[in-house]
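S., here's the first fold you wanted:
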Amino acid sequence: MGRRSHRLFARWYPQAAASLEDRGLGEQRARLLAGAAGRVLEIGCGHGANFAHYPEAVTELVAVEPEERMRDLARAKAEELGREATVIDGQAEKLPLENDSFDAVVATLVLCSVEDQDRALAEIHRVLKPGGALICLEHVGSANRAIRTGEAVFDAVLWSHVFGGCHTGRDTGAAIDRAGFDTGALSPQRFPGLPFPLKVSPHLVGTARKPA
């Protein structure tokens, strides 16, 4: 499939995102990733915001990122932290990786922006070992139909064009369920300390499992 570039977003977002970490997102990342272990794949690693939060139990970290500038920043972040990470070019919808090969896949604020959510989740399911974990922190659409309609308009007119293909109104929980994951350990949360629209968006947080 063709790749849509978001070069302008990749240039301004890393600096702007620093304030989000200070407003509670960094703390949430640390809690979310505390249980990660073994061979881990991160989808859409961006500039490496998660890298500081992976525990020593992660024995190998592979990170996929489609934007060249973001990959360069992620490699620099890994070097700064003294963390070994293999950062590769690729899209979530077509991962250049083998079947049943990762203990966990991490997706934080990325499933909102992939071009084809079902294909991306099918690929994540494919590369996970049986019993493996999809660790995610994703903002999702409102359960209220009227608000969700407003989110769709907001995305089409402005948001997705400015913020690297991000969509505020996706039903990511349903997509994860359709991909064959056990979603019982995912829960909705809100983070009012984040800026609009993230502070009013419900977030799906936790671990989904590929059946053993």
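And the second, which I think is the more interesting of the pair:
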Amino acid sequence: MKLNELSDNPGARKGRMRIGRGIGSGKGKTGGRGVKGQKARSGVKGIRQFEGGQMPLYMRMPKRGFNKPNQAKYAEINIGKIQAAIDAGALDAGQKIDAAALIGAGVLRRSLDGVRLLGVGALKSKISIEVAYASAGARAAVEKAGGAVTMTETREEKPASDSKAPKKAK
């Protein structure tokens, strides 16, 4: 058997339906569009949302949310992937690990607006890593292994707001 002789079993692939080719085909005359009317014509748009002049449901619903246009995008990496790169010899645990070292080792493709360290996986090596942000679990795992995490960006801890506390009756 040769690669150019490979083929599907007969009947395994169904051909496309050719519509409008006579009543004997089963899709002739109206071509599967039923009878006359707006839906039988070509180029009809927006008829599914039309509610007879009533304000459509998608316009009655309130708009919610906001997408920040200049939001920072971080390259995320788990500690398990860093440990795998150290085990493979791509990263040196004795050197300081930063975005350039991760890109050079092939662990990351690009650093975007910074690197975010996440805590999935296990870390056995003592490393010193510099990232834009590290989750609490990732920081705990690195410090448990005897390493250190340096964060270039700091997040301000939000004070406990009064709105979430139960209101007292006056």
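Why I say that: Helices lie at 57-60, 79-88, 99-104, 136-144. Residues 79-88 form the longest helix (10 residues).

Talk tomorrow,
H.
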